[in-house]
Structure formats: C-alpha cells, structure tokens
Amino acid sequence: MKWQGRRASRNIQDRRASPGGGRRVGSRGAAQGIGGVGLIAVLIIGYFLGVDVSPLLDGGALDDSSTQRSAPLSAEEREAGQFVAVVLADTEEIWTQVFREQVGEVYRPPQLVLFSGATRSACGGADGASGPFYCPPDRMAYLDTAFFDVLRRRLGAGGDFAAAYVVAHEVAHHVQNELGILPRANQMRSQASEAASNRISVQIELQADCYSGIWAHYADARLGVVEPGDLAEALNAARQIGDDTLQRNAGRRPMPHTFTHGTSEQRESWFQRGYDSGQIGQCDTFNTSRL
User: Fold this and answer.
1) Beta strands in the chain (DSSP E)
2) I need a surface site. Which of 123, 126, 128, 134 has the fewest CB within 10 A?
C-alpha cells in the first residue's frame, strides 16, 4: 500500500502518552485518557479462546495513577500512528464521495483514538483484550496499535493492507452508525434471545466487512494506492479472524451458535462483494437469505 508521504487525518487522538497526560493530534481539545501497560498477552487469549476476557482486567473506571506509561513512543509506534492517520484520511475522502454520490448526504467522519494498553471510552473502559472497536455514543473508533503485531505474528495476517483493513472495518461501523443501521440493529439485539442476538451481531460485522471492501474498491480505483498483493492481504486478514478459524486454532470445535462475527468464508466473501461492487446497496446483510 502506498502510504508514506501522503495526507494524514487530523481526526486522531493519540493517547499513547508519556506520563503527564495524553497527546492530542487535531483541533478538538485535549485528550482525556492516558495509555497503560500493554495487555497484548491477554488480548491473544481472548481471541484464541473466543471469550471476552475484559472481566479479568476490571473494565470499569481506570486509575490514571496506575496506567501511565513511563517510556516515550518508539519509532515503530510513531510509524504505526502515522500509518493509521493516512489510512483514516483515505476513509474520509472515500466515504465523503460515497455518501455524496450514493446517499445524497454529508459524511461526518469519526475520531480515532490510539491508545496503549488501556483507556476510557463512552462505552466504558477500553483495553487491549477487546481488540479494535467502535463506540457509537462518542462516535469514536479505538485502536491499540499493538494489535497489528497480533495480527501479523499470532493470527498470520501480515502486511500493511491487512492493517489498513482493520482501520477501515472500524470506520465501517461508524458508517453504519451514520446511516442509522447500527442503532436499529443494537436495539433489536437488546430485545432478542442470545442466539438471535448473535446472528444480528454477525450481520453487523459482515456488513462492516462489505463496507471495508467498498473502501478498498475506491482506494484502488480513485486513489491508486493499492499495490499488487494488497487485496490478498486484506482477504487473508478477513479469513484469519473468522469465528470458526479462531475457535479451531484455539483447539476447539467450531460452534456456530456462538459466532458473533461470521465464518472465515463469510467475512472474505462479503469483503470481496464490497470490493467488486463499490456500492452500499450490495452490502445489505439484513435482507438476504444467505449470509
């Protein structure tokens, strides 16, 4: 992926800070959280066992006095932050055009919070065990850039375009929020049985994969930043984080009724669908007979 030397988004909060407070990149005020000690080992446990391990980490209010990091950002961390800012800028440009052309509305981009170990969000305490996520109440995506190492070393999904897919997927949840899809789906989940709620969750995630494919479509067709092999990296990332593959790699028999993100085949297929079409209308996972 061609990203060096290109425009970076200003909609970034960088909370991977030295003691004394979070750094803020952009124009909306000071950061409200401080990154903490890395919890990447716990994150790996959560992904491979298919369980939410946040209760082990006390996901409530964080104590700033115990979560400050003592070291400045490494060169690798700084580069990861620059990379994310460029990818986020691309999503802003692409979704602004897509909303104008396909929706007839103005796209309001999200903020993206970079953190290390733990931080706060309007959805509660955020930590590495949850992986990258989007919080609808504050319209922010959250990312511990250490997840890129997990993606590459532990999940077998290396490459810069695979990392960009992670960013694009969380932005895709923001797109769902902007379109009113996410609040309706979450309302349905709150009133559904566990099995039905899991299925709705899968529909949400697969649609986000499809929207990520739309991002890749226009990153290739309009921005010209996609290089040979990039699409394969994104598809491999989608495949490696399918529920069935994660459970199988954890030594467990895949249990479809517990899936919340979709199988590897589904995730790869819906990303490809978005990439091939470039159309929001082709990503309706809620009104199809076959996911």
Assistant:
1) 12-14, 111-115, 118-121, 124-127, 133-135, 140-144
2) 123
Residue 17 is predicted with a pLDDT of: 65
Tell me the longest C-alpha to C-alpha distance in the chain: 53
DSSP 258: G
**Number of domain units in the chain:** 1
Q: Give residue 157's Cα distance to chain centre.
A: 15
Q: How far is CA 181 from the centre of its chain?
A: 17
In a domain, 236, yes or no: yes
Has residue 3 been placed in a domain? Answer: no
190 has a pLDDT exceeding 70:
yes
Residue 4: other Cβ atoms inside 10 A: 9
Instruction: Summarize the confidence of residues 224-240 as an average pLDDT.
Output: 96
Beta bridge mates, 14: 114
Q: Average pLDDT of the chain? A: 84
Q: 226-236: string of b/e by CB count within 10 Å (b at 16+)?
A: beeebbebbbb
Are 26 and 11 within 8 A, CB to CB?
A: yes
Q: Judging by DSSP bridges, how do beta strands 111-115 and 118-121 pair with one another?
A: unpaired
Whether the model clears a pTM of 0.70, i.e. scores above it, the answer is yes
- Cβ(195)–Cβ(251) below 8 Å: no
Looking at this protein, which amino acid is placed at residue 42? Answer: V
Residue 290 lies in a domain: no
Token look-up 């399918």 returns 242
The secondary structure of residue 36, as a DSSP letter, is -
Instruction: Give the H/E segment covering residue 263.
Output: none
Phi then psi for 272, rounded to 5 degrees? -60, -40
What is the layout of strands, in order, in the sheet containing 140-144?
12-14, 111-115, 140-144, 133-135
Of 151, 157, 148, the C-alpha closest to 87 is 148
Give me the domain span that covers residue 233: 12-283
40 occurs within a structural domain: yes
